[in-house]
Automatic annotation (TrEMBL):
Keywords for the protein's UniProt record, in alphabetical order: Signal
Domain of life: Bacteria
Signal recorded as keyword: yes
Organism name: Candidatus Venteria ishoeyi
Stated name of the protein: Uncharacterized protein
Span of the signal peptide: 1-23
Length: 536
């Protein structure tokens, strides 16, 4: 089954057409609003019929030309765009309603008295031609205007069943001709059109639903003062709102049978919502036991959304289950922690799950860090990252899958500055030096972490000296540290300085001797990871 991927072209097309919320397409005052269907209606090589139960596929327009009593004229209605070929756009062969009616343009319209009949085209074609002859005699009942048809009279075409061979937009055209030959050959040089509407909106196909990050979502900030083990500005330090998202059906969609789409449940069955990023800081060091896996899943959850977007439980102010017993834990965690997946059920009686019939408006993805001294996570700190969101769908029988990918869903940033040194070797012959500069007006505290060439516990792994892990850089000044000031043992590795200062005020230089005899040194600026000083 072919899948449609939401892209910018489809999103852009939404602006080209209005949304038809009335019972017909009204072109009496210019471009009316098209009837809107999901762009994932099943069609392709299958012949799909869209129908109207309430006259949605009817079109009203001005006659735009007088027709005297007894004079016959020919109205051509044509559908264009869409899909060509034998399985393309046409009036359905079993159509029971291809009609034309004419009224005056009064506030309470009165029918005009005219003989109207199909003379060519119709069911099985993409056009139909009507013969129209105004009458003088008044039928019973007499609530009908007789005499010549007027330019200002209004014409209503009813075409309740249309076959589509694809989901290209379908346009509507009207032409008025003197003869049936001209109406049958409208583009011929000998044909004269007396009045016309060309390529007007009729049927529009668009994305059936949307998935978006909510406006106003703030980035989560991992706080340098805690060694990036806690969030800053959240109600509780370990838990924060990583994303706020809305999954919503497109307004005023019609079903192929002619009804209205009133809920997501008419467009989706069992589907999945997958967030992609680095979720390792929420996991446990040992993910082989059921108990630890359960704990990890409960650290990544969607808040209970009962009560709507402003509901008391629709927030990340507390850890899982502390706001509501029906907070929704993640169901699938990728082995490498690069994604987490929530199932979106068509129907599920269990509590604490997502259903397509739920109100998925401004739902909150909450995350609790398993970091710090009391944690069981080997990662150690909350990672900077941008998180994206995918919707992978299964759909009812009238539709093909319509997935939405790579929606920007949220960010985690580090505050302060992080300086990373080149790798260095511990040696009594030449001792690496680290110059930390603070151009700010207040002193800046720092914390040191080490990366080693050797695994933790190896005799050659770098080990920090007890009590040397933190320090202070003076305001408007510099601090010189030698590797022997903070390394207790080990052979080779790098140092990371997490500095609680403004990024623009903090910098660092690494210096190492390159020759035992000449006294030459290499001086290298310390690396500040991209994004650490960015407001993007």
């Amino acid at each position: 089954m072919k899948k449609h991927i939401l892209n910018l072209a489809i999103c852009a097309s939404l602006g080209l057409y209005g949304v038809n919320v009335s019972a017909l397409v009204d072109h009496t005052s210019g471009n009316g609003d098209a009837v809107v269907y999901g762009g994932n209606l099943k069609s392709s090589t299958e012949l799909k019929t869209i129908s109207s139960l309430t006259g949605d596929l009817s079109v009203k327009f001005k006659l735009d030309k007088d027709i005297d009593v007894g004079i016959q004229r020919f109205v051509r209605i044509e559908l264009s765009g869409g899909t060509a070929g034998s399985n393309g756009t046409k009036f359905n062969t079993s159509a029971i309603s291809l009609n034309l009616s004419i009224t005056d343009n009064a506030a309470t319209p009165v029918n005009r008295n005219a003989d109207i009949a199909i003379v060519q085209g119709g069911a099985g074609y993409n056009y139909v031609i009507f013969r129209v002859v105004p009458k003088t005699s008044s039928p019973t009942p007499p609530a009908v205007e007789t005499g010549a048809l007027k330019t200002t009279d209004l014409v209503t075409f009813t075409g309740d069943d249309v076959d589509i061979g694809g989901t290209n937009d379908i346009l509507f055209s009207y032409g008025l001709f003197e003869t049936v030959t001209e109406a049958a050959n409208p583009d011929a040089a000998s044909s004269t059109v007396l009045a016309s509407l060309d390529n007007m909106p009729y049927i529009h196909f668009t994305a059936p639903y949307s998935l978006e990050k909510d406006d106003g979502l703030k980035d989560l900030i991992a706080d340098v003062a805690t060694g990036f083990t806690e969030f800053k500005g959240t109600t509780i330090p370990k838990t924060g709102e990583l994303s706020s998202f809305t999954l919503a059906k497109t307004a005023n969609l019609k079903t192929p049978a002619g009804g209205s789409v009133t809920s997501l449940g008419q467009l989706l069955t069992d589907s999945t919502l997958t967030f992609k990023g680095n979720f390792s800081f929420a996991l446990s060091q040992d993910m082989t036991t059921e108990a630890e896996v359960t704990k990890a899943k409960q650290r990544i959850f969607i808040a209970d959304g009962t009560g709507g977007t402003s509901g008391a439980n629709n927030n990340c102010d507390n850890a899982f289950g502390e706001n509501s017993a029906t907070d929704i834990p993640v169901e699938i965690i990728a082995e490498d922690a690069s994604s987490v997946t929530f199932n979106l059920y068509a129907s599920n009686s269990a509590s604490g799950v997502l259903e397509v019939t739920d109100t998925l408006s401004s739902r909150k993805l909450c995350i609790t860090a398993n970091t710090g001294a009391d944690a069981t996570n080997i990662v150690g700190e909350i990672s900077e990252q941008s998180v994206t969101l995918d919707l992978v769908t299964t759909v009812p029988g009238d539709y093909t899958a319509f997935d939405i990918e790579n929606v920007a869903a949220g960010k985690i940033k580090h505050n302060g500055a992080q300086l990373i040194t080149p790798f260095f070797t511990m040696s009594t012959q030449y001792i690496p030096r680290f110059y930390l500069n603070n151009r700010g007006l207040t002193e800046a505290t720092y914390e040191i972490k080490v990366l080693s060439d050797f695994p933790e516990g190896d005799a050659n792994a770098l080990v920090l000296q007890a009590g040397s892990e933190t320090g202070t850089i003076p305001a408007g000044g510099n601090l010189l540290l030698k590797s022997t000031d903070f390394i207790a043992s080990g052979k080779r590795g790098a140092a990371i300085f997490n500095v609680a200062g403004e990024c623009a005020d903090i910098s660092g230089i690494f210096q190492v001797r390159t020759s035992r005899t000449s006294g030459d040194f290499d001086t290298i600026p310390m690396l500040m990871p991209s994004g650490s000083c960015s407001d993007d």
